[in-house]
């Protein structure tokens, strides 16, 4: 059974810092991994998708890496801004399934 | 661009009542997912459909059922509602195993 965990659970940083969020999964036979952002009471927005054959994806100040063999992904946020404050979730879809399993999320607060 | 549309946005029900949540996926997306999210929790997978056929099932109570119709919209039916069913219910759609697009969710409150 696929299990996904995220560390840290919460993070508070001053504006301008670079930061790393971590995601671990137990079954490495994944089809892809996605990182999402969720604002309080709102839906989830997909930030980056990494296919199992890829090592990283970049979008603006965001960079996500994937090490499938070790069951890990990281989301790197450069030059953080107060508008980045949200909960960040990773989700994986295991090969042969039709369900994304979500991690426990990291609540990020960027202080002005 | 069209997004995933969910209705209603808010729903208040009494215990033991029935609720129906609707989801209209993005056109040409062949996969629909339903998730339940309690306060401060991560989304929990309920059920998914691929090309209108049920494709996977999570920890969905027997009191819940879902289907996808010929026009690709999906409905989640919840009967004999319990207080613990109060949560945010999300629908998401995607092309097969591609980027997920989530709706704004339905906030269900069971009193």
Tell me the helix content of chain B: under 10%
For this structure, the quaternary state is heterodimer
Shape of chain B: globular
Please mark out the parts of chain A with pLDDT under 50 across 5 or more consecutive residues, or reply none: none
What is the alpha-carbon Rg of chain B in Å? 13 Å
Task: Quote the beta fraction of chain A.
Answer: over 45%
Number of helices of chain B: 0
Give the uncertain stretches of chain B in residue-range form: none
Helical residue percent band of chain A? under 10%
| Beta strands of chain B, count | 11
Strand count of chain A: 11
State mean pLDDT of chain B (0 to 100 scale). Answer: 95
Structural class of the secondary elements of chain B?
mainly beta
Distance between the termini of chain A: 41 Å
Q: Main sheet of chain A?
A: 6 strands, mixed
Order of H and E elements of chain A: EEEEEEEEEEE
**SSE string of chain B, helix = H, strand = E?**
EEEEEEEEEEE
Gross morphology of chain A is globular
Largest interface, counted by CB within 8 Å of the partner chain's CB? A-B, 23 and 25 residues
Largest sheet of chain B: 7 strands, mixed
TL;DR?
Chain A has 112 residues and is an all-beta fold. Chain A is built from no helices and eleven strands.
Question: What are the main properties of this structure?
Answer:
heterodimer; A: 112 residues; 6-stranded mixed β-sheet; 5-stranded antiparallel β-sheet; 0% helix; globular; B: mainly beta; 7-stranded mixed β-sheet; 4-stranded antiparallel β-sheet; 11 strands
Explain what you see:
In chain A, strands 2, 4, 5, 9, 10 and 11 form a 6-stranded mixed β-sheet that branches. In chain A, strands 1-3-8-7-6 form a 5-stranded antiparallel β-sheet, with no helix packed on it. The mean pLDDT of chain A is 95. Chain A has strands spanning 4-7, 10-14, 19-25, 30-38, 44-51, 56-59, 62-67, 72-77, 86-94, 100-102, 106-111. By secondary structure, chain A is mainly beta. In chain A, 36% of the residues are buried. The radius of gyration of chain A is 13 Å and the shape is globular. In chain B, the strands form 2 sheets. In chain B, strands 2, 4, 5, 6, 9, 10 and 11 form a 7-stranded mixed β-sheet that branches. A 4-stranded antiparallel β-sheet of chain B has the order 1-3-8-7, with no helix packed on it. The mean pLDDT of chain B is 95. Classes of the chains: A mainly beta (112), B mainly beta (111). At the A-B interface, β4, β5, β9 and β10 of A face β4, β5, β9 and β10 of B.
């Amino acid at each position: 059974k696929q299990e996904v965990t995220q560390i840290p659970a919460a993070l508070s940083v001053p504006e301008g810092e670079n930061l790393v969020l971590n995601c671990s999964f137990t079954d490495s036979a994944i089809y892809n991994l996605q990182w999402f952002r969720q604002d309080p009471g709102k839906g989830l927005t997909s930030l980056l998708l990494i296919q199992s054959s890829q090592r990283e994806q970049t979008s603006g100040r965001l960079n996500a890496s994937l090490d499938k063999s070790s069951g890990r992904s990281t989301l790197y946020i450069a030059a953080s801004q107060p508008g980045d404050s949200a909960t960040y979730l990773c989700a994986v879809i295991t090969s042969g399934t039709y369900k994304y399993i979500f991690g426990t999320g990291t609540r990020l607060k960027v202080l002005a | 661009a069209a997004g995933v549309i969910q209705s209603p946005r808010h729903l208040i029900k009494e215990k033991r009542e029935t609720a129906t949540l609707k989801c209209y996926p993005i056109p040409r997306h062949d996969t629909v997912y339903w998730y339940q999210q309690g306060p401060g929790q991560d989304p929990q997978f309920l059920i998914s459909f691929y090309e209108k056929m049920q494709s996977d099932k999570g920890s969905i109570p027997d009191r819940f059922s879902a289907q996808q119709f010929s026009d690709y919209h999906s409905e989640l039916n919840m009967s004999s509602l319990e207080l613990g069913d109060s949560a945010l219910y999300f629908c998401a759609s995607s092309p097969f195993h591609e980027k997920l697009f989530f709706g704004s969710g339905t906030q269900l409150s069971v009193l």
